[in-house]
Model the fold of this input.
Amino acid sequence: MSDPKTSVLPMGHTDHDTVVHGGDGPAHPGDATTLFWRFFGWSMLFALVAFFINAVLTISYDWPGIATVLSGGGMLAVVQVGIYLLAIAGGWLLTTRSRMNTLRHDAKTISDFNLALVRACFFVVLFVGIGDAIISALRVEGVLDAVVGEDLTRNLGRSQFRGPYVHVPLAIIAVIVSRFVRTLGFHWLTLMIVAAELLIVITRFIFSYEQAFMGDLVRFWYAALFLFASAYTLLEEGHVRVDIFYAGMRNRAKGRVNTLGTLLLGIVLCWTIIIIGFAGQSAVIYGSVANFEVSQSGFGLYLKYFMAAFLGVFAVTMLVQFTSYLMESIADWRDEPGTRLDRAEAATH
Done:
């Protein structure tokens, strides 16, 4: 006898269409409303990629930007508009080619991708932080010359060298490692923050020794932990809600509230950060990253530009997760089977 909590869609559907029945209504794969919201979500994610491509073309290669398409921008401006049109077309193509996918299926696909992205980011800051701290420690103690030679030591003292030739290779290695270590990196990062802070306490109060890079490392990792974990916290419904009515609402009412909140607040906030952060050569995110900006402390970590990039990573990962959350919320609004809570309970049995 089949489990009464499960409901399988008609023959011809794939395994992902087998869902835990958490609502009274059926799933609606292929109907107009489902297609519209799936198209909206995927198009926005493709448009995010198009935005970054255009930002690089406009800021780094002096392309005119889409705003000049009707005011003398020429063919380059038309091409930039075309990039956005391709993004929208990509969203439509993906939606129509997988017409029978449900909102919850796409939400899980997007969320799984985002978790992989966040995991890679955590390992990047872990590896880059350790690597830069080692270089800074050797440099401040005056032994870096003996290890790598005078010329390389001089180059490692320039952020324009240390960034591309040390940080970037370490970041690539970290991304590769994240594909094999199937755990979220903030567990490792939390442990390393505690270890780094403990080292400061021991060296300061026992040996009366402390260097600028030690405090920089703690701040670097803590900022990453705080900003990168936000998307995962949203997935797990871990963000604090200050409400009077929400907790007592039915699932459909919660879906309406979450849908409106995601559209009017969450997505808007993320796009605001991204647009302002990449508004030009002196923008708070792009300007810092492009110039490999460092702090004023002479022997601190050369990672200030990384911390500016954290804002961009936060906005991107939250936007991706909000897209997943939007699809889930609309499915809740429509009382479709397989709520987040029901799937979590089923996974424990």
